[in-house]
Amino acid sequence: MTQKIKVISQMIDDAFLVADVGCDHGHLGIELIKKNKAQYVLNVDVNLSPLKQAIANSRKIIGKERIINILNDGLSNLSIKNPIDYCVIAGLGVSKINDIINNSVVELKQLIVQPEKNHIKMRYYLTKNNYQIVDEIIVFEKNNYYLIIKAIKTEDKHDLTDTDYVIGPILKNQNSPELISYIKQQKELIERIPVAARKKLQLIEITEYERFLNNQWKLEESLTES
C-alpha cells in the first residue's frame, strides 16, 4: 500500500458507501474494507484494464462482496440508491475532477481529491461550489509530491485569501518538512520562467511562496535563539 492511499484512507471514517472514481487497481477500496472504514466501496474506472486488476485484487480479501466494480466515466448515467458518504478522486487533472463532480447523479457531500496539478484551480473550484476545505496533506512518494484535499459541502460560500489559494487554508498553518520542500519546488518552477513572461497568477504565487518561506525562516531563527 502506498503512502498516498494510506493518507486517503485515514481521512475516511464510519462510511456506509465510498466511491473511488479512477480507482486504478482498487487498493484504496481493499484498505477501507479491511479496516472496516466503509461498509461498501464503489470502484469506478473508465478503463477496463485497471478495473480488471481491481476485480482480481478484491477477490483475494475477506469482504470482497462489499466491493462493487463498475466500468464507467465518472458517476454519470448510474443508478445509485444510497448516498455516497465520501467520493475519492485521486490522480486526475483538475478539469476532469470538476467534470466528475458536476456530472454526478448524486450530490457529493464529502470529497477527497488529489489533483495532478493546478492546486490553486482545485481550491478555487471547491470554494466557488460551496465546498469547505477541512484538511490538506502533502505526501512525498517516489520522488513526487501529492496534495490531498478533503472538503465538505456546505450551504455557504467560503472566501479564501491569496495565501489560502496558493499555500492552502489548512497548510498555511503547518511547517512539515514535506510542505516546505513542496513550496520550495513550486517556487523554483516559477523562477525558471523569465520575469517578463510570468502571468499574473504566477506573480501572486511566487509572492506567497516567498512570504511563507520567509516566515518559516523567522520561526526557525526565533526557536534557535530561545
From TrEMBL:
GO terms for biological process: methylation. Coiled coil: none annotated. Keywords: Methyltransferase, Transferase. One of its GO terms (molecular function) is tRNA (adenine(22)-N1)-methyltransferase activity. The keyword DNA damage does not apply. This is SAM-dependent methyltransferase. It comes from Mycoplasmoides gallisepticum (strain R(low / passage 15 / clone 2)) (Mycoplasma gallisepticum). The lineage of its organism: Bacteria, Bacillati, Mycoplasmatota, Mycoplasmoidales, Mycoplasmoidaceae.
